[in-house]
């Protein structure tokens, strides 16, 4: 028999225990639906970044996930595609993936979810109606509406200080929408040092290709300047499948001598996104990246050597997910996050979320969207919420069968940890939201 509160328990007397499976499911679904998320990794930009802030049907259809899929169903040389205007590209993708084929893939279904959310036709022959709709929205109100529809309270951008367009906005001291937080992205410095050197030099940092004490000091000065300017919540880098730590390469020295000391001094977590193989098919440009199984030991060593630095970590390969969970059990300065890119499909999110719950309880960040185009927040979060709710229902039902019922408040607490609190506790989010 379930103890329904007759004996003293830490669950409050007034909070009923959810002992009925139907009720339990209802509460979990409600909590997962309604809990606001902090989306800890996106490629979105706020309106202040001008043309970098992508939204609307043409940007949505020319998402690189859909570009890659289109090439599988149409005979077209990539060079021809890249010569087309964005509008022509969107028309072609719509015709190929939505008219001539059923939009069954996750990225294609995502477009359907978005169109439906705005009451637009999901099977129109052309994009006329959708274009008309997006073109006539008040942009600021549209941004607000999308955040509300997706129940996203804040997003973290991906901010590259060596991108001239972006640097310009930051350097002008423009006040950025408070819902958009910065993440200082280090890919150019850590993955492409030779090309980063002249760019840093242009900006007044006296760096040399060969790493010496002066260069390290200048990289640190560069990081400090941008931390002051952007006030990022964390620093981040994507890494290839062959990333090793320790290693005898330039990246290792920059990490050890510049990035990790900066993370420590500034109290900023470092986010590692591991397993991408850039340019597997260069003709596809941004759609041409692939995946490779990486070595989780690199993360274990980094966490062990730097107990005073916090690491957000995600791997791109499905094969690395279980090892990541085990590593997180060993290092409390390691926070697994999200189901990245090729993993952000219902079948894999379902699997990863279950194995994380089984090994880590609620001590991980369930998902991030990686959205590049504003309205993607709607579909990515809607689809993820559905799958995460199922995984949680399963876990609580199993717990109930073992003899422990939960209350609605406990469910809400757990979902809040997964959707925002585990992230919030590791970063310094000032003020609202
Ligand atoms: O490195 C990253 O942050 C990746 O997410 C991107 O490079 C990738 O193109 C992407 O958008 C995946 O969702
Ligand atoms: Zn990303």
> What is the approximate shape?
globular
Beta-strand proportion: 5-15%
What is the typical, i.e. mean, pLDDT?
96
- One letter per element, helices H and strands E, the order comes to HEHHHHHHHEHEEHHHEHEEEHEHEHHH
Helix % is 40-55%
- Rg computed from alpha carbons, rounded to a whole number of angstroms: 23 Å
| End-to-end Cα distance | 44 Å
Bound molecules: D-fructuronic acid, zinc ion
Say how many strands there are: 10
The secondary-structure class comes to alpha/beta
Low-confidence stretches: 1-5
Q: How many helix segments?
A: 18
Please give a quick description of this structure:
By secondary structure, the chain is α/β, with parallel strands linked by helices. It has 18 helices and 10 strands.
Task: Walk me through this protein's architecture.
The protein has about 425 residues and is an alpha/beta fold. Helix content is about 50%, strand content about 10%. It has a five-stranded parallel β-sheet. Strands 1-2-3 form a three-stranded parallel β-sheet. A two-stranded antiparallel ribbon has the order 7-8. Helix 13 (about 250-265) links the parallel strand 5 and strand 6. The longest helix has 27 residues, at about 375-400. The radius of gyration is 23 Å and the shape is globular. About 40% of the residues are buried. Residues about 1-5 have low confidence and may be disordered. Bound molecules: D-fructuronic acid and zinc ion (ZN).
């Amino acid at each position: 028999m379930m103890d329904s509160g007759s004996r003293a328990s830490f669950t409050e007397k007034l909070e009923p225990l959810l002992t009925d499976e139907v009720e339990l499911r209802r509460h979990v679904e409600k909590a997962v639906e309604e809990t606001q998320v902090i989306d800890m990794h996106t490629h979105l930009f706020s309106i202040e970044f001008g043309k970098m802030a992508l939204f609307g049907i043409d940007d949505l259809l020319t998402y690189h996930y859909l570009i890659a899929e289109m090439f599988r169903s149409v005979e077209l040389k990539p060079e021809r595609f890249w010569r087309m205007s964005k509008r022509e590209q969107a028309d072609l993708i719509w015709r190929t993936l939505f008219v001539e084929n059923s939009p069954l893939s996750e990225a294609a279904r995502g477009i359907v979810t978005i169109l439906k959310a705005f009451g637009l036709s999901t099977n129109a022959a052309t994009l006329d109606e959708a274009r008309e709709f997006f073109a006539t929205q008040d942009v600021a109100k549209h941004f607000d509406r999308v955040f509300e529809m997706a129940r996203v309270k804040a997003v973290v951008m991906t901010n590259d200080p060596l991108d001239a367009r972006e640097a310009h906005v930051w350097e002008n001291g423009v006040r950025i929408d408070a819902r958009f937080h910065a993440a200082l992205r280090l890919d150019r410095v850590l993955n492409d040092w030779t090309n980063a050197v002249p760019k840093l030099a242009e900006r007044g940092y006296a760096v040399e290709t060969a790493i010496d004490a002066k260069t390290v000091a200048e990289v640190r000065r560069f990081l400090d300047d941008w931390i002051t300017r952007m006030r990022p919540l964390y620093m981040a880098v994507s890494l290839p499948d062959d990333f090793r730590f320790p290693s005898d390469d330039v990246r290792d020295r920059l990490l050890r001598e510049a990035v990790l000391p900066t993370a420590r001094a500034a109290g900023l977590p470092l986010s590692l996104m591991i397993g991408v193989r850039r340019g597997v098919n260069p003709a596809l440009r941004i759609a041409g990246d692939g995946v490779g199984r990486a070595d989780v030991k690199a993360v274990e060593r980094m966490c062990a050597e730097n107990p005073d630095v916090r690491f957000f970590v995600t791997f791109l390969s499905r094969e690395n997910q279980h090892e990541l969970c085990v590593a997180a059990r060993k290092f409390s300065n390691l926070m697994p996050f999200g189901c990245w890119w090729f993993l952000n499909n219902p079948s894999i999110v379902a699997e990863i979320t279950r194995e994380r719950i089984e090994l880590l309880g609620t001590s991980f960040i369930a998902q991030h969207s990686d959205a590049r185009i504003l309205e993607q927040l709607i579909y990515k979060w809607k689809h993820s919420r559905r799958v995460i709710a199922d995984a949680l229902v399963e876990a609580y039902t199993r717990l109930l069968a073992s003899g422990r019922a939960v209350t609605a408040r406990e469910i809400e607490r757990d979902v809040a940890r997964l959707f925002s609190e585990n992230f919030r506790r590791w970063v310094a989010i000032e003020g609202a939201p």
